[in-house]
Amino acid sequence: SSGISLSSLVSPGNICRSPIAEAVFRKLVTDERLENKWMTDSAAVSDWNVGRSPDPRALNCLRNHGIETAHRARQVTKDDFQTFDYILCMDESNLRDLNRKSSQVKDCKAKIELLGTYDPQKQLIIEDPYYGSEKDFETVYQQCLRCCKAFLEKSH
What we know:
Helix content is 40%, strand content 14%. By secondary structure, it is an alpha/beta fold. Helix 1 (17-31) runs parallel beside helix 2 (56-64), helix 1 packs across helix 5 and helix 2 crosses helix 5 (134-155). It is globular and about 40 Å long. The mean pLDDT is 91.
């Protein structure tokens, strides 16, 4: 294999949690000079927001931490299950949807997990901040940062 691990981070609409997680993960990988080892993406379970930029509050939160993203929302495809090594999602309903979709794909090689299983602080679920405040987006950022760091340490 090319030695590239592929990770895709998934939430229902791909405009709040998963783009934050993707941007955080990408920055960690870049900071650790592991860009040639990881291909990172994020996607949605649903097709509500395909082609849309992340929520302005998500962009704002990332910018506060010096991170830019040019991500556009996309939906999980069959190929994702066959090419990605890990598909990390945000909550139980994502997990159910992904497991259901993956069961219809032959040669599913992706390990489908909750990103929160990697959290040293044991916050298993990364709650949707969409109806919340800036503070909720910051919480998502901090959770994603902890989880992505721990995930990276475990997996390389």
